[in-house]
Amino acid sequence: MTSIPLFHVLILSSLLFAIGFVGVVARKNTLFILMSLEVMLNAIGVAFIGAGSVWQQADGQVMFILILTLAAVEAAVGLALLIRMQKKYRSLDIDLLSQMKG
Predict the structure, then answer these.
(1) Which of 1, 55, 59, 102 has its CA 20 to 30 A from that of 27?
(2) Are the C-beta atoms of residues 40 and 66 closer than 8 Å to each other?
(3) What is the mean pLDDT of the chain?
């Protein structure tokens, strides 16, 4: 059984990260921005898993578990903010956040 070369894993990770970054920069909808952040976190996790697999270390898997924990917290807080924003402004447009005070 052959393993996937680290170069290919890093290319995949870089492409996923770039797609997520473009989604964060280009979108106005807050939900899509949060989804793009999740894609970026998963890209980092893929890079850690690939590096850990090549070097035969469990550190990549441990880091991926920490990234998943961070993603879960980000999703919970982000969705709570989205619900609050939808109730107050009746929109998920990111430009309305500059009007939030207090």
Answers:
(1) 102
(2) no
(3) 89
